[in-house]
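Good morning,

Attaching, inline, the backbone tokens for the sequence recovery test we're adding to the shared suite. The designed sequence is right after.
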């Protein structure tokens, strides 16, 4: 641990996510350090380099479609990176080092693989956060580009296919803002929210609470995060036995929302008092 009580992995994560440009691949790998404290991120970075080297000979043109086909052929066909419905219930599908090892993951993590490999090839790539499904844009978002879906092996998405994805999730039509590049901070927030949601669906217990806590604490290191996570962190600390730390976090949250949400502030202070009472 560092002198302030933060693990080296978390300290590095905080530094990476507050740097410009954000190294999304490295940040995602550092998230894996919460599950595997001995994780060597350099091993996974080397895997990404090897994947890029395998794709390079297949880059026979300069159009976005050419890059899409080369990435699909190597990542989607030869290496079989893709996802299934079962991956939504497996935390490994949200950890980049596990996705690289298992070649399975959630759409957002598979998209990170495509983006990181593309970046090593000099191919412009960006995440597109459709409702409930992340895909990858290749090329210039304001000019010539294509969208590909790594979750299904990296095939190019037609405009109609994108419309079907949005319609199935929201019941609405594709709006221009839906197909814009997703900022790195938003992508990382979405990755960590997936872990929180998975933990919340598990049977109540210390293991689920601990998973949810580390996802919350990493999210709080992002430059922008929902203030409600302060309350969630306090409640989780209390659940895991840190009554004093939890009470202090709940009181901090109450001070932040004072004047804007008095009901929540009052409830948080009541929870803090109950937590402190358990110390007597």
């Amino acid at each position: 641990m560092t002198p302030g009580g933060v693990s080296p992995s978390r300290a590095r994560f905080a530094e990476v996510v507050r740097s410009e440009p954000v190294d999304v691949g490295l940040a995602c790998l550092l998230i894996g350090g919460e599950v595997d404290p001995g994780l060597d991120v350099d091993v996974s970075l080397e895997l990404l380099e090897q994947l890029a080297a395998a794709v390079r000979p297949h880059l026979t043109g300069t159009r976005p479609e050419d890059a899409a086909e080369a990435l699909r052929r190597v990542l989607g066909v030869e290496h079989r990176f893709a996802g299934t419905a079962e991956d939504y219930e497996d935390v490994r599908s949200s950890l980049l080092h596990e996705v690289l090892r298992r070649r399975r993951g959630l759409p957002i993590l598979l998209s990170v693989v495509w983006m990181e490999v593309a970046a090593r090839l000099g191919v412009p790539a960006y995440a597109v956060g459709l409702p409930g499904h992340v895909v990858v844009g290749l090329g210039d978002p304001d000019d010539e580009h294509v969208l590909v879906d790594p979750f299904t092996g990296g095939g190019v998405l037609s405009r109609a296919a994108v419309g079907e994805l949005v319609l199935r999730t929201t019941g609405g039509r594709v709006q221009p803002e839906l197909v814009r590049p997703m900022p790195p901070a938003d992508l990382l927030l979405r990755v960590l929210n997936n872990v929180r949601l998975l933990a919340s669906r598990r049977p109540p217990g210390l293991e689920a609470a601990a998973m949810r806590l580390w996802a919350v604490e990493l999210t709080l290191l992002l430059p922008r995060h929902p203030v409600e996570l302060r309350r969630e962190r306090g409640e989780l600390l209390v659940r895991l036995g840190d009554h004093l730390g939890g009470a202090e976090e709940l009181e901090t949250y109450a001070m932040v929302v004072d004047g804007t949400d008095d009901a929540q502030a009052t409830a948080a202070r009541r929870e803090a008092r109950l937590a402190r009472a358990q110390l007597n």
